[in-house]
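Duplicate of #3305? Posting structure anyway:
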């Protein structure tokens, strides 16, 4: 199969916006992973204590788990951006699904976004991701995602 032409400017811009959203999401998720231990209720702490786990082990696990999940999420952003640049329509569709979830999240959490600078990072991350996906549906971008003919002769 012949190689795809270079991506249009809108696709490149969209992929960079997706990467920027991923970076902000990574920052937000790493910071919030350090707050996970403070969310444990006294009953949770007692249950861990009864299981023979001390607070240090539980805290280490929760923070580590949060960071691993943050890195996986960032990897998904990078993969979508990479494959969008290659003209893979499945990546554009997957990004659209995530953008739809982000849009629903924005409307359900709208009041809380302005309560702290950290929450504002989450809002900006969501908006950048949505803007990146919108760029992939603009008129100059659409032909780039069409499947090339198998036998161009």
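Output from current build:
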């Amino acid at each position: 199969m012949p190689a795809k032409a270079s991506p249009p400017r809108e696709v490149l811009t969209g992929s960079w916006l997706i990467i920027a959203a991923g970076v902000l999401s990574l920052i937000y998720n790493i910071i919030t992973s350090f707050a996970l231990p403070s969310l444990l209720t006294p009953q949770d702490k007692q249950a861990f204590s009864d299981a023979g786990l001390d607070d240090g082990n539980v805290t280490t696990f929760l923070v580590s788990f949060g960071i691993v999940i943050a890195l996986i999420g960032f990897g998904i952003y990078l993969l979508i951006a990479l494959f969008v640049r290659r003209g893979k329509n499945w990546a554009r569709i997957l990004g659209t699904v995530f953008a739809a979830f982000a849009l629903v999240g924005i409307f359900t959490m709208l009041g809380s976004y302005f309560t702290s600078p950290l929450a504002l990072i989450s809002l900006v991350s969501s908006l950048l991701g949505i803007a990146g996906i919108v760029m992939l549906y603009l008129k100059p971008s659409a032909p780039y995602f069409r499947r090339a003919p198998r036998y161009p002769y």
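Confirmed duplicate; merging threads. DSSP finds five helices and no strands in the chain. Helices lie at 9-33, 42-50, 55-85, 89-108, 117-135.
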